[in-house]
Design brief:
By secondary structure, this protein is an alpha/beta fold. Helix content is 28%, strand content 26%. The strands form 3 sheets. Strands 1, 4, 5, 6, 7, 10, 11 and 12 form an 8-stranded mixed β-sheet that branches. It has a two-stranded antiparallel sheet with strand order 2-3. It has a two-stranded antiparallel ribbon with strand order 8-9. The radius of gyration is 17 Å and the shape is globular. The structure holds cytidine-5'-triphosphate and magnesium ion (MG).
């Protein structure tokens, strides 16, 4: 019985606008994928690591990850990329941690803590942080419809850890509306699974827009 990590890196990085996939964008002198992959290599709780790459950049990503990390081509949506990762797992893998390559500041400590929290009765576990901003529901013109009570509202990070069987089941079940989910927990929830959130790491934010890269660069280069 072992634990695997699927690092999804097959996105185009359109909002970052760097002209190449985010995984290859440098952060403090290293491509983001190198940082994310190294954290999983350093984690004591993960035995197999699969990086899911944009099909045209599979070789490019391969050059930037440690030798034991596998690189496979991904799909048109995040869910299809997760499926490509699932298809690559070895027969002994029972637990899977799915991580966004766009969160390069993940630490081995957070990975280990999340994997350790997956035990009965939980079907999936992920790190998360309480939302700090006031939340408003708006229409498509930005007109405020109402304020959403943020008490008990958490923003979810990755890695998202679940049993391999549960993840494969939900991926098969949602094949019809595949592509809609932006994370794996929502699939497990929809299938009636019990999901636990644990305290996340503020530095494990997702690099989405250019300002996120500026902040992350400061974090990795400041003494
Ligand atoms: N992802 C993926 N396959 C896709 C789409 C997304 O593996 N077809 C991955 C991304 O590489 C990223 C993670 O899912 O690590 C979260 O997605 P996001 O932050 O939206 O990254 P991108 O899709 O690359 O960015 P954008 O939406 O701005 O194009
Ligand atoms: Mg995207």
């Amino acid at each position: 019985m072992s634990t695997a990590a699927i690092i999804v890196a097959a996105g185009a990085g359109e909002r970052l606008g760097a002209g190449l996939p985010k995984a290859l964008v440098h952060l403090g002198g290293q491509p983001m994928i190198a940082r994310a992959a190294s954290a999983f290599v350093a984690s004591a709780s993960v035995e197999q690591i699969v990086v899911v790459a944009p099909p045209k950049f599979t070789d490019a990503l391969h050059e930037h990850v440690p030798a034991e990390v596998q690189v496979v081509p991904g799909g048109a949506t995040r869910q299809l990329s997760v499926t490509a990762g699932l298809d690559t797992l070895g027969p002994d893998v029972r637990v899977v941690a799915v991580h966004d390559a766009a969160r390069p500041l993940v630490t081995p400590e957070l990975i280990d803590r999340t994997v350790a929290a997956l035990r009965p009765p939980w079907d999936a576990v992920a790190p998360a942080l309480a939302v700090v901003d006031t939340l408003k529901a708006v229409d498509n013109r930005g007109v405020v419809l109402r304020t959403i009570d943020r008490t008990g509202v958490w923003a979810v990070q990755t890695p998202q850890v679940s049993s391999r069987a549960a993840l494969e089941r939900v991926h098969a079940r949602v094949a019809s509306d595949i592509g809609a989910a932006t994370d794996d927990l929502s699939l497990v929830e929809r299938a009636g699974g019990r999901v636990l959130l644990i305290e996340g790491d503020p530095a494990n934010f997702k690099i989405t827009h250019p300002v996120d890269l500026v902040l992350a660069t400061r974090l990795v280069t400041s003494p």
